[in-house]
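User: Here's a protein and a ligand (S-adenosylmethionine). What would the complex look like?
Assistant: Let me lay out the input and then the predicted complex.
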Amino acid sequence: MPNVKQAAANTVDTLFPDLKREPNTKAFDRADWGTFKDSLRAPIHRWFTYPAGFSYKAVEEAFRLYNIAPDRTVYDPFAGTGTTNLVAKQYGVHSFGVEAHPFVQFVGQTKLFWEFDLPSLLHAIDSLIEDIYRVTETSDIPAIAVEDLFPELVCKCYSREKLARLYICREMIDALQSAPFKDFAKLGLTNLLRTASDVAAGWPYVAPQKPKSEAKTNGSVDIVKMLRSQLYLMHNDLRVVREAYIPGARTIFIAGDSREYQSCIRSGSVDLAFTSPPYLNNYDYADRTRLETYFWGEAKTWADITERVRNRLMMSATTQINRSDYREASLLNQDFCQTVPQTAAELKPKVAELSERRLNKGGKKSYDIMVAGYFNDMLRVLRETYRVLKSGSAFVLILGDSAPYGVYIPTDEYLCETGKAVGFARYEIETLRTRGGKWKNNPQRHDVALKECILTLYKD
Ligand SMILES: C[S@@+](CC[C@H](N)C(=O)[O-])C[C@H]1O[C@@H](n2cnc3c(N)ncnc32)[C@H](O)[C@@H]1O
């Protein structure tokens, strides 16, 4: 009988035979660790394309480096769609994840439920698809008033007929009784929303009005058939992953706020914290899932999304800011200024510079408030993460720096210094890649060279 460490090693090789075991070989394309590229092709990870997600390979590599064997515990304070927790579950490692965006948390939670009886799951998929076909065949599809059922943004993405069919799928899934299967089917249909759309649906930044090229248009696709293929693929992913995983891990995936005290995680109980926090780059996570939340009726307007999603997230986008709630003189709060005085002294003139620069910019974006709020919030996350870590363990973060309105903010250094101020003994910063090149011909953008790094904070 192999010991658990040996079993874990075997699992890595069985699941990912293309990976070499030594770090820094070509097989580990570290430049892509901060992106979702690798995860797009990996079983279960691929159930939802989350552009903010990162590579599962980075988690595997961290597990090797820090000897994370079965029965150890890891924590991801910005768990997103569950990449860290999925890898942990595969290797029999206990894990906690905290994610504040309710829809993204739903995705992660659903990807982490593997305990289906697989033949029954297949049977449930077949009966759902059969039922949907029966209802679509007997419905007067053109008579379904999709304009009254969905916000305009959703209507712009599909032909009336396609949206009516999607609506039938939605209603049939909503009516399902068994919670795990309902979530599974809901995620399956969610995954089709962008691929089945007739317009380029890759916003937040591009409004859904540009039709896809002829070749890419899915005008005539059979939605129910697509749904069946997706659910079959998900079923098969579960089978493949379950054949090779080490059972026994406890996974606790919390819908919560990692700035706050997590009562279910004991102090000094975690062997490794691994995450990719929001970058200081004005990415609006709430807007990214607008199509999905509108489609499922979880929000109908920008204001709904602000109340139900945007306001729950830590500060990282100007769309979260109502300027009249802030005073320019005290954007960095007292807690930050007292805990990290040196970094606060470096940040203050940059924040003031941003308060000035915005006045001469068309968008007048509140980057000053965003930058200060980001560090106020990250201080709390670092403090709470420090609390839950065992001594002798590490907090690893994949993170980019930024330069709003051309004012360079060395996010990596400032966060590491903040980490030291809350108790971490030392840190290392390793560059993964330079980034931002795609904007270089855009006169609206700055030309400051940016990078993506791995930060490692060590707790003695
Ligand atoms: C860079 S993404 C992490 C993605 C994740 N690594 C994955 O592979 O899916 C950062 C995540 O932090 C979440 N977030 C923002 N504020 C948060 C908070 N206060 N507590 C917990 N999660 C938060 C965002 O919703 C987003 O999903």
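Summary: The two ends are 35 Å apart (CA to CA).
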